[in-house]
Amino acid sequence: MATKEIFFAGGCFWGTEHFFSGVDGVVSAVSGYAQGSPFFEGRPSYEQVYTDTTGFAETVRVCYRPERISLQTLADLYFSIIDPLSLNRQGHDEGTRYRTGIYYSDPSDRAVLEDAFASEEARIGQPLVVELEPLRNFFEAEERHQKYLDKNPDGYCHLPARVFKYLRLYQDLAALLGDEPDLIARMAETASLIYERMKFFWVGFYIVREAVGQGDCKASKSRQELVLGPFQGPPACLRIGFGRGVCGTAWKDARTVVVPDVEAFPGHIACSSLSRSEIVVPIFTGIARPKTVAAVLDIDSTTPATFDPTDALWLEKICKLL
Ligand code: SME
């Protein structure tokens, strides 16, 4: 099957190009300048685009194999690395050359992209400031800007380094899990890979089960409780009641809970005195509304404030693989 192309403006192209180069199914990612003014003549240089008067946006041309990765997945990945509410600014980079946009050369791509924009807008609950336009023009950037972060591993990047680690982890995990139907096996593999790659102190699952009313759960009136599932790291408490600790709160509120300082979290259950910060991500079952929590992914770190919205976003993606 022939390759297809799509153009992503996502702030500084060094990071956007590096990210999409690592996506399975992508054949090439090339940094360049797109959507310049029709009055600009010839090929723009980096310095000209830098003046912010040419209309060009730093843009990456992504060529991909549609039988290996869909445009929808590519758009979804794109939204994971931009702030779609920030106008003409991504990270520390400011100016119209750093605006965000998806530009298509195949008009039949528009419908898929409109759907992707609509679901992102619904997820965020606010109008996006990301452009969606047919591609007007695109010029490849100078050679020194291609594969910039491969050539300069310590070079500037507006994306946190963890994004590239999470992308690799996510893709490798999807391949490892394949179509294995057993949830415990999938959880065990997931806990192991996150633990190995991210070097967190404790990574594991608590699964919603019928209550037997032991330990901390004695006081809970719920018919159900969280029971320890597959994990990596030191021994942990076996059962957690509904609404108890960070895990029970994520279960009760059916949302990801990020705790920068476990001591400041009321009711935190200290399985290890070494744990300083924590994130708990709920795993939902089926398509029922309201969504039902079937389990939670719990990760502990020995350093304070380890987890931020980047971790939340990627760990939620990872939990969807389960
Ligand atoms: N700290 C968790 C309990 C589980 S351990 O971190 C592994 C909580 O407060 O829910």
Topology summary:
Elements (H helix, E strand, L loop, with lengths): L3 E7 L2 H9 L4 E9 L11 H5 L6 E8 L6 H10 L8 E2 L2 E2 L5 E5 L5 H15 L6 E4 L3 E3 L7 H4 L9 H17 L5 H16 L3 E9 L13 E9 L6 E3 L3 H9 L3 E3 L17 E9 L6 E10 L7 H12 L2
Parallel strand pairs: 6-7
Antiparallel strand pairs: 1-3, 1-6, 2-3, 2-8, 4-5, 9-10, 9-14, 10-11, 12-13, 13-14
Helix pairs in contact: 3-4, 6-7, 6-9
Explain how this protein is built.
- With 322 residues, the protein is of the alpha+beta class.
- It folds into 2 domains: 4-159, 2-Layer Sandwich (Peptide Methionine Sulfoxide Reductase, Chain A); 165-321, 2-Layer Sandwich (Beta-Lactamase).
- The protein is 30% helix and 26% strand.
- It has 9 helices and 14 strands.
- A 6-stranded mixed β-sheet has the order 7-6-1-3-2-8.
- Strand 13 and strand 14 form a beta hairpin.
- Helix 3 (71-80) runs parallel beside helix 4, helix 6 (161-177) runs antiparallel to helix 7 and helix 6 packs parallel to helix 9 (309-320).
- The mean pLDDT is 94.
- Bound molecules: methionine sulfoxide.
- Residues 202, 236-237, 240, 245-247, 268-269, 271, 275, 278, 298, 300 line the site of methionine sulfoxide.
- Methionine sulfoxide (SME) binds at residues 202, 236-237, 240, 245-247, 268-269, 271, 275, 278, 298, 300.
